[in-house]
Amino acid sequence: MATILQHGNLIDGLAAEPLADSLVIYEGEKVLYAGPWRPEEAAKYPGAEVRDVTGKTVMPGLIDVHVHLTLYGKPSSVMDFLVDSATYTALKAADCARKLLEAGFTTVRAMGDKASADFAVKRAINEGMILGPRLLTSGKGISITGGHGDFVPGDVELDTIGETCDGVDQVRRAVRDRLKNNADNIKLMATGGGNSPGPGTVSQLSEEEMRVAVEEAANRGVLTAAHCIGTDGIKRAIRAGVRTIEHGSFIDDEGIEMMLRGEHYLVPTLCAFRTIKHGPEGGVPDYVLEKIQYFATAHYTGLEKAYRAGVRIVCGTDTGTPFNYHGEGAEELELYTKVGMSPMEAIKTATSMAAECLRQGDVGVLAEGKTADLLIVDGDPVADIAVLQDKGKIEVIHNGKKVERR
Fold it and tell me: What's the CA gap between 88 and 79, in Å, rounded?
């Protein structure tokens, strides 16, 4: 039976302004119509469930292109994922996936998880065993010995969030291993990072190592992403052909020009800076705080310059990092408005632009033939984008079915 949503405001993911007095019709998993109110369209479905959504906004489900299902937002998640068993980690990851869906994120990309738990969670979601968003997987991130994601001393055998590879051949083998498991994305560590030991901005994977990863992935139509903090590592990843630059803290004018010349997207992950806001009293290790505070000295300036230059920016939250909890990612969009974006531009980073970035043509836009992933928001996100953070004001429809919150 079809469902008709009539007389609400419509954000379709593409238009510059919301459409007042709209009509959205969906049946099963597909949208049948999304546009201005037309009684003749509604009349085509005489047995439909009709809902008057006057005063509400109908919009596409949100997309987050950077989450970690096996990090839980604790001050020092490293100890947890070192000590927890792979089985328990997967159970917690399934719970995190449901929290994301309940918050309105109907599509997410996992960006490096312990024991490649995201592969198991995706299978369980797709087989209907558990409830979760459309999940795009990466498996473990690929790093170098002693690099970002290599948390374990050399004489200790523990499963972590990354796999160390040194040299082109080892990287090629690691990528092929992920492709064997039907990964949707390959996550590369181009530089150091905040939560692992060692300098945060130093380059790690070489351009040649990343290029072979890009080539192997492209052979299977799979995308690539690179964790990039330092300027040189950002440029290495761009030259290697990596599609999404994650974080991009120290991007400079040359790096911005390089991104504009190719098919590259910037993923700012501003929610990750909650570490600074809550860390001093919350128990975040001092070395982590010092590095992330240093990243912040350049991050916002670089993002604003990239936005004004026309770099394609997509929503990614780095959910799972300290105090960055699953289900709270909509704050990312409000943060984008503080660097110059309009609310509608910020919404598009998590709808049509994110879908384009991930090559997910069936989502991110409300139009005939698209997947019925949508939100019914009690309010107007263009007037007050913070309303997307209030789960009590959001009804989530995923694949045409209402998501019941726990």
Answer: 14
Q: Which CATH architecture has domain 3-60+365-402?
A: Roll (2.30)
Give the integer Cα–Cα distance in Å for 401 and 205. Answer: 43
- Please give the helix or strand (H or E) that residue 33 lies within, else none: strand 30-36
The answer to whether 3-60+365-402 and 62-329 have equal CATH topology is no
Phi, psi of 303 (to 5 degrees): -65, -45
> What is the Cα–Cα distance from 25 to 41, expressed in whole angstroms?
9
Residues constituting the chain: 406
Percent of all residues in the chain with a pLDDT value above 90, rounded to a whole number: 83
Which ranges constitute the DSSP H helices of 262-379? 274-282, 286-309, 331-337, 343-349, 352-358
Q: What is the largest CA-CA distance in the chain?
A: 71
- 260, amino acid identity: L
CATH superfamily of 62-329: Metal-dependent hydrolases (3.20.20.140)
> For 238-241, which contacts have Cβ atoms below 8 Å and span 24 or more sequence positions?
238/262, 238/264, 239/207, 239/211, 240/207, 240/208, 240/210, 240/211, 240/213, 240/214, 241/210, 241/211, 241/214, 241/215
Domain ranges of the chain: 3-60+365-402, 62-329
What is the full DSSP assignment across 59-101?
Answer: EEPEEEEEE-TT--S-TTHHHHHHHS-HHHHHHHHHHHHHHHH
pLDDT per position as a tens digit, 125-138: 999 999 999 999 99
Contacts of 270 (CB under 8 A, 6+ apart): 299, 300, 303, 317, 332, 335, 336
Is residue 153 pLDDT above 60, yes or no? Answer: no
pLDDT at 273 over 70: yes
